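Good morning,

Both structures are done.
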Amino acid sequence: MARFRLKEKHYILTDPPEEWEQKETDQQTGRQGTKRYKVPRFLDPGDPSHWTGPGEIIVSTKLSPQFPRDIIFEGPPTPDMEPLDDEAIELLRGNEKKDPFLGYDDRSYSDRLLEKLHEAAMSQPTAPRADDGLASQIAELKAQIAALQKPTVTRR
């Protein structure tokens, strides 16, 4: 069982699932139909009503009698989850191989992603801009506009 502490706000799939319910009334029969959709649950470490412990939200991959208040989540861990045990560290390391933007440091996932994108953008050489005759086409259009703006003489 891997346990994680949430460092940032998350939308994650949980077990039991969070559901959104939609009710519609059929215009012809007047009967009400209900549809339920499985949706991610919003967890905010800054909101005391979401806390599973004193000042924190702990999520895990399996239910454990030792930690009955943990929230069970489905899917891979997110980059902004802090591992609390060896299994969680191994799970995060396995995901680092799949996603080059993941890393295990104090910066948030978005900060690391922006840094990698900036490095990639700066490493690409800037090619000189090709004119492709654009300047001559602009000069030609300016001449045509100037010709159209000249006053015309009309004979009577």
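Second structure follows.
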Amino acid sequence: MSTSAPRILICDDHELIREGLKRVLTNGGLVGNVGEAANPLEVLAAVRRERWDIVILDINLGGRGGMDVLMEIHSEFPRLPILMLSNYPEDQFALRSIREGASGYLSKNLASKDLIVAIRHVLSGRRFIGPKVAEQLVAAVQRSETRPLHSTLSNREDQVFRLISVGRTVGEIAAGLSLSVKTISTYRSIALRKLNLKNNSQLMRYALEHGLDS
């Protein structure tokens, strides 16, 4: 596959971010067909309608969330490279993203040249893994002790858990994810049970102790 004019789909719910990414791609010589999507429905429609060489996907898309979209795209198009872009540090979601089918994970705080390097790396058929993710992968292979309890959470349970840990109410989470309060309450109950916790205060303390509250 040629990387001189790749077909790139940018998926972010902020127009300024999408415009900034397009400028970075242009300045980096990746001036092929660049498409845009602002929400999960637009992303899924775009990948089903056209052929893309790579998808740049924000992990914090509104509605269903970028992780859910990642899993759905990977399920339908397992050979389509997906590069996750996030405000979260690598040690929070990178390993989970790779396990769910992403070809790479980058922080939005990275330098423009790093994004170009990552895209070209992924377009060549390889995964782009930063030093912290590499360390996590090595540790995951080497450690023999029981995994931490929060690693047993599903993607949606983990998402609800993290939102509660930073003070979001069940109603706020339900509105933000376009789900019912009952559904969010169910995810909360499951997360509490899996973590052997009884209430939100204990959940917040657990997140703080494990560095998951950001």
